[in-house]
Amino acid sequence: MGKVFDNEGLHFFGIRVVYKHLIDEGYEVLNVRRELGINPQILAKKNDLLYFVVVRTATYPNMGVLTPEVASQVTLHALRHKAVCRFASVGLANALGETDEEMGKPEVDGEYYINFKGLMPFPQ
């Protein structure tokens, strides 16, 4: 078995998934922050609207979760900048895993199943 993602590597992998999605959807990505604990992770623009994108990544069988505290903090920050908040939940599984436990341990240079359904509005 190869090297399994640590929290920082998993977080950055999810950011890369969302970054590619944004580019593919015609967004202009203005800034990316990969540090754990910094929110939002991605600042983007599309149709003259500014977007604050919070990315959370988890391993199989889980998905990234937006906590109420982070949602509140980013919403206040977005109001000051007239930005729209979006949440990107990413799930990552080891595609070569044969059991749930193995699937929950994606390897750094491995093969993956990625569960990402696009950008979601923040909960109200």
What would you say this structure looks like, in words?
- The protein has 124 residues and is of the alpha+beta class.
- The protein has one domain: Trna Endonuclease, Chain: A, domain 1 (3-Layer(aba) Sandwich).
- The protein is built from three helices and six strands, in the order αβββαβαββ.
- Strands 1, 2, 3, 4, 5 and 6 form a six-stranded mixed β-sheet that branches.
- The chain is elongated.
- The termini are far apart.
- The relative contact order is 0.21.
- The mean pLDDT is 96.
List keywords for this structure.
124 residues; alpha+beta; Trna Endonuclease, Chain: A, domain 1; 6-stranded mixed beta sheet; 3 helices; 32% strand; elongated
> Any idea of the CATH class?
Alpha Beta
State the separation between the terminal residues, measured CA to CA: 42 Å
Report the sheet with the most strands, covering strand number, pairing sense and barrel closure.
6 strands, mixed
Count of alpha and pi helical runs: 3
The whole-number mean of residue pLDDT values reads 96
**Uncertain segments of ≥5 residues (pLDDT<50)?**
none
What number of domains? 1
CATH architecture label: 3-Layer(aba) Sandwich
Rg over CA atoms: 15 Å
Run of helices and strands:
HEEEHEHEE
CATH level 3 topology: Trna Endonuclease, Chain: A, domain 1
Please count the beta strands (DSSP E, at least 2 residues each). Answer: 6
Dominant shape: elongated
In terms of DSSP E residues, the strand content is: 25-35%
DSSP helix fraction: 25-40%
